[in-house]
Amino acid sequence: MAFDDADLNSGAISNINVTPLVDVMLVLLIIFMVTAPILQQGVELELPKETIAPIEGKDEQIVVSVDQEGKVYIGAGNAVEVKDLGNRLKDILAVREDKRVFIKADRRVSYGEVMAVMGTLRRSGIYKVGLITEPS
Asked: What pLDDT is attached to residue 13?
């Protein structure tokens, strides 16, 4: 073999092969780049434009979306009737520390439909309600 007595007496070999580490890190980077856009919460809407401070919080925010046709969603694609909205959100908020709910409505939705959603939340005991807009 290629080993001789001089190599055995000189100590441990200190070469580290970093190629597998680099391969794993590149694969993880690609996975995160692909999945990050998918994690966007909510329904695709055309929001009104206004400049306000960004939403702050530790947990993932609960977003109620109202699309152009007036359909109501909790999160991304979980359609719900307005009459059932309060009970569903109360169950979700019962296990959460952050009790805030944010409403994201398409700018073409009538004011009355947004107020119906807000009224349902108030009647259910949910008082921390915010509205989401796009930066202008």
From this structure: 72
Beta strands in the chain (DSSP E): 62-66, 72-74, 78-80, 101-105, 129-131
Are the CB atoms for 91 and 79 separated by under 8 Å?
A: no
So what CATH class is 62-131? alpha beta
Give the separation between CA 45 and CA 59, rounded to whole angstroms. Answer: 23
- Confidence (pTM): 0.58
Quote the CA–CA distance of 37 and 121 in Å, as a whole number: 29
**Delimiting residues of CATH 3.30.420.270 domain(s) in the chain:** 62-131
pLDDT of residue 78: 84
Residues of the chain under the 50 pLDDT cut: 1
> Residues 55, 56, 60, 64: is their CA dihedral positive or negative?
negative
